[in-house]
Amino acid sequence: GIASSDDSSSFNQAAVADAVPRGALRGSVGTGPREEQLLEVIPQQQQQQQLGEATALASEEGRRQQAAKSVFCVCRKECGDMFCGQMFYDLLECDPSCAEVCQGKGMVMSGCAGAREVTWYHNLHYKYTDCKDSPLQR
Predict the structure, then answer these.
(1) Which of 26, 55, 108, 137 suits 97 as a labelling partner, its CA being 20 to 30 A distant?
(2) Is residue 68 left, alpha or beta, with left meaning phi > 0 and alpha meaning psi from -120 to 50?
């Protein structure tokens, strides 16, 4: 059958229709589209599809570049004295690394936290020193 119009790999039906002589019935002998006209339509559609794929890849790369580090590795010097050890993109990246980061700074790991939790430190009367690349600095 004919693919739906929202199928990106379907032929451009309007372009093919322009290549078919008016008044001809589909399947009638000698009245089909001229071969050279169809050969022009197909590469144009392939170019449009390839351009769409390249645009999607560029968009995905842009999203990765815009992804912000949003997980805080929180280190504790002493009770109520908290420091941001390092920023990470996600918990999967923070959890295995945070203890080592804090130990390297002479502190113990408090945990990996999100911005909401870190903003509560002030309300809990903790002293907190933020990371330079923290999204809360902006």
Answers:
(1) 137
(2) beta
